[in-house]
Specification:
heterodimer; A: alpha/beta; Flavocytochrome C3, Chain A, domain 1; Methane Monooxygenase Hydroxylase, Chain G, domain 1; 5-stranded mixed sheet; 5-stranded parallel sheet; 17 helices; 22 strands; 36% helix; globular; B: alpha+beta; Ubiquitin-like (UB roll); Fumarate Reductase Iron-sulfur Protein, Chain B, domain 2; 2 domains; 7 strands; 35% helix
Chain lengths: 650, 248
């Protein structure tokens, strides 16, 4: 292999792709039009059609329950011991809906506008509009299920403003909205299990997709208790397997979150879109040492009253209270006087990392900045601060052992959500017939940046209202060959899974899976985090390739397959993260613009702010698997309704 | 800090199982309890031993996956989940016993991992409101008094971890069952199925092999989400009402 250093050497370019099912005409009528044009399945025939749904978070549980209610035979899978534990449960803030219960000028169109603008003009207008359109139905559905949303003394639902928008459209259940929505979807799912329309398989992990005659027809899964490798066949497959933030090792994701299901589908031909689009949350509790296994998010609302600063002197290790006022740099207030500490997530995150990289960070390893409530406590009184933020202060105190009422909190940004995912059309169908992808697992309606309280909205929109309508159009086309798990393609897929597991167990090297994962995460965070450069990304690709090679020759996976083997589970996931990480770097390298939370140093304004490049990058990058040479297919984005503008927070 | 762990090791459900002692040096007091187990597992892997299996996922106290008995107490000495317990809660030199949930309805799968699917089956039996997708009226069609909504929420915060069962001398799942009965039963949407729900869920609870409730209250004191014991009184009232109404 030549040692050239051209950024184009890492990929090939294929034909542009188009979303062929996207309806045209007035945007307000497109979803109705699509639903009307979609073929319907006769109720008697639904009983004869089977659908596999992988994942039981908001997008998966809602889809499985709804498809079961409709009369399909559903098989649901999750890696946890219960479907109720999927990571949607950890979402705190809330869920947006264009109900306009506040009479404050909200509308479907405004939510649509905010979503497209917030996504920095890298999402599809049609999809974002539909998301806003069905948002109101989600709240109705959840209330009917008994989700205990926050209410006012009138008995009506409470709302709050969230994520920097100017209307109050966020519904919430204290700081546990995700939990309550997921329990609602879980209960609907359990009801269908009881009715016999859904067969639930817990502690089962999907390890491959089975494609027969160009159509997704089944999955290979591993029973995580016995190690048995099983094949399950169906007429269609839905992946609702969440995001891939754990490629960074440290993130706010659950420990088990992984990319394996979507990555295996990608290796089977599904396009992976915008993999480099990840969201970084500014207010997480910093790492306390090498033992750290995950990062904990604190609500962004803290920035409403807290002031962010670092010492003016590099490496100043005096306690915060001993640093006089004039030796502190309130850098956000200084650089962004109009927005101050309330600049958007991406800007706050990047500024914090820059401060730490330059040596001004505080706390262990210098990886933190202060979030100081001293002024707020003086202005509002301790009682009011406690009323507003008490639970967050308690959480911080429990994790760090420090009292945030007396010493400033320390915060640091962390990976929180991934906007990229498998490419889907308007029907949420991937480029593989019969393979549908919902929720965070698809490349979604969020563009290059997701607004707060929109992830829950998208997952439930997909699962309750979009997919159950669109999948019928596919299933109604019929022409399904009668097949079972003895089909040669099914056997081949199963054999490939067995072979890969044997290969992992046979390495018998010296290094633990976690040590590889941590090193990969470090490379990704440094070079494919919030600030990226051509040089850094090319270096990262080389580092990942070398590490991947070492993994396959030196990883130590203890135990056997025929057992509950958590090391083996992690090894398979980390092996896929290497390949994903490489593609993320290649995607970030090709997209040499700054958009959303992604800052390319080569693309900035004179005063150092992110500069989008609409001439060259107003497209979705959909990647076809190609080993060392992935193939880029572009889907051009058109904006008929909303004028493209550059964001400014000065 | 240095600690000594005595951990329950059991290779399979039908294996006899035993306590195994491990010494750990230079443990940071800022580690969570599960991070301490991670460190031990890394060490065991390097030395060629089988790492200790334990359930965990979100590590922020909300998914309900983790949970072990620490020195005889479900989730350990604090009112929180195992993942939110930190080593600063233990003294330097401490000897810490770590065991799985022990209950007839929670068979051990391996080491500290137990099978809690019995809890899912209690929900299947009736822990829901039948509201098929698309059938819902406008969310403001039926106002819910704030007091009722807050009361429902306080019960709905149950994370299904099973600490209540592990803490109960009878291995009863009554607090778990009662939390769902209360959550759904105090809301107007939950009324049509209120009688059948309590009867079906309690029947399933008994069928799964959970013990009966004798009002000891260990469940409520072990609950990381502080679900109150009064939920069980609510369940008993609902059950009596349902049986008396003849809707069984």
């Amino acid at each position: 292999m030549s040692e050239s250093t051209e950024p184009d050497q890492f990929h090939a370019v294929g034909d542009d792709i188009r979303d062929r099912v996207a309806p045209t005409g007035p945007i307000q009528e497109r979803w109705d039009k699509r639903k009307f044009e979609a073929k319907l399945v006769n109720p008697a025939n639904k009983r004869k059609l089977s659908v596999i749904v992988v994942g039981t978070g908001l997008a998966g549980a809602s889809a499985a329950a709804t498809l079961g209610e409709a009369g399909y035979q559903v098989k649901s899978f999750c890696y946890q011991d219960s479907p109720r534990r999927a990571h949607s449960i950890a979402a705190q803030g809330g869920i947006n809906a264009a109900k306009n219960y506040r009479n404050d000028g909200d509308s479907v169109y405004r939510l649509f506008y905010d979503t497209v603008k917030g996504g920095d003009f890298r999402s599809r207008e049609s999809n974002s509009y539909r998301l806003a359109e069905v948002s109101a139905n989600i709240i109705d559905q959840c209330v009917a299920q008994g989700v205990p949303f926050a209410r006012e003394y009138s008995g009506l639902l409470d709302n709050r403003s969230f994520g920097g928008v100017q209307v109050s459209r966020t519904f919430y259940a204290r700081g546990q909205t995700g939990q309550q929505l997921l329990i609602g979807a879980y209960q609907a799912l359990e009801r269908q299990i009881n009715d016999g329309t859904v067969e639930m398989n817990t502690r089962h992990e999907m390890l491959d997709l089975i494609i027969i005659g160009g159509r997704a027809r089944g999955v290979v899964v591993r029973d995580m208790v016995t190690g048995e490798i099983e094949t399950h066949m169906a007429h269609a497959v839905v992946l609702a397997t969440g995001g891939y933030g754990n490629v960074y090792f440290l993130s706010t994701n659950a420990m088990g979150c992984n990319v394996t299901a979507t990555w295996r589908a990608h290796r089977r031909g599904a396009y992976f879109a915008n993999p480099c689009y990840t969201q970084i949350h500014p207010t997480c509790i910093p790492v306390s040492g090498d033992h750290q296994s995950k990062l904990t998010l604190m609500s962004e609302s803290l920035r409403n009253d807290g002031r962010i600063w670092v010492p003016k002197e590099r490496g100043d290790d005096r306690p915060a209270g001993d640093i006089p006022e004039d030796e502190r740099d309130y850098y956000l207030e200084r650089r962004y006087p109009a927005f101050g500490n309330l600049v958007p997530r991406d800007i706050a995150s990047r500024a914090a990392k820059t401060a730490c990289d330059e040596g001004y960070g505080v706390g262990p390893g210098g990886l933190g900045v202060y979030l100081d409530f001293a002024d707020a406590i003086e202005r509002l009184g301790r009682e009011e601060v406690e009323e507003k933020y008490g639970n967050l202060f308690d959480m911080y105190a429990q994790i760090t052992g420090e009292n945030p009422y007396e010493t400033p909190m320390r915060i640091y940004p962390a990976i929180h959500y991934t906007m990229g995912g498998l490419w889907v059309d308007y029907d949420l169908q991937s480029n593989i017939s019969g393979l549908f992808v919902t929720g965070e697992a698809n490349f979604s309606d969020q563009g290059a940046n997701r607004l707060g309280a929109s992830a829950l909205m998208q997952a439930l929109a997909d699962g309750y209202f979009v997919l159950p309508n669109t999948i019928g159009d596919y299933l109604a086309t019929g022409g399904f060959d009668i097949i079972d798990e003895t089909h040669p393609q099914a056997i081949a897929a199963r054999d490939a899974v067995v072979e890969r597991i044997e290969k992992l167990l046979a390495v018998k090297g010296e290094r633990t899976v976690d040590s590889f994962h941590k090193e990969l995460g470090h490379i990704m965070w440094e070079h494919c985090g919030m600030e990226r450069s051509e040089e850094g990304l090319m270096e990262a690709i080389g580092l990942i390739r070398a590490l991947k090679e070492e993994f396959w020759t030196n990883v130590k996976v203890t135990g056997v397959n025929e057992d509950l083997n958590q090391t083996l589970e992690r090894a398979g996931r980390v092996a896929d993260f290497f390949e994903l990480g490489e593609l993320m770097c290649i995607d970030a390298l090709v997209r040499s613009e700054s958009a959303g939370g992604h800052f390319r140093v080569e693309s900035q304004t004179e005063d150092g702010e992110a500069k989008r490049n609409d001439d060259d990058f107003a497209h979705v990058s959909a990647w076809e698997f190609g080993g060392d040479q992935p193939v880029l297919h572009k889907e051009p984005l058109e904006f008929e309704y909303i004028e493209m503008k550059q964001r400014s927070y000065k | 800090m240095n600690i000594t762990l005595r951990v329950w090791r059991q290779s399979r459900g039908d294996d006899k199982g035993r306590m195994v002692t491990y010494g750990l040096q230079e443990i940071s007091e800022n580690m969570s309890f599960l991070e301490m187990l991670d460190v031990l597992n890394e060490h065991l892997t390097v030395t060629g031993d089988d790492p200790i299996a334990f359930d965990h996922d979100c590590r922020e106290g909300i998914c309900g996956a983790c949970g072990v008995v620490i020195n005889g107490e479900a989730h350990g000495p604090l009112v929180t989940t195992t993942c939110q317990l930190h080593m600063r809660s233990f003294a330097d030199g401490a000897v810490i016993d770590v065991e799985p949930w022990r209950a007839g309805a929670f068979p051990v799968v391996k080491d500290l991992v137990v099978d809690r699917s019995s809890l899912d089956r209690i929900i299947q039996a009736g822990g829901f409101i039948s509201a098929p997708t698309g059938s819902a009226p406008d969310a403001h069609a039926v106002p819910v008094p704030k007091r009722d909504a807050d009361h429902a929420f306080d019960s709905a915060t149950c994370i299904g971890c099973g600490a209540c069962v592990a803490a109960c001398p009878n291995g009863s799942g009554m607090l778990f069952t009662a939390a769902k009965i209360t959550h759904l039963g105090v809301m107007p949407q939950g009324q049509p199925e209120r009688d059948s729900r309590v009867i079906d869920m309690v029947n399933q609870h008994d069928h799964e092999g959970f013990g009966g409730c004798t009002n000891i209250g260990e469940c409520a004191s072990a609950c990381p989400k502080e679900i109150p014991l009064s939920n069980i009184a609510q369940l008993n009232r609902d059950l009596l009402g349902a049986l008396a109404s003849g809707n069984a």
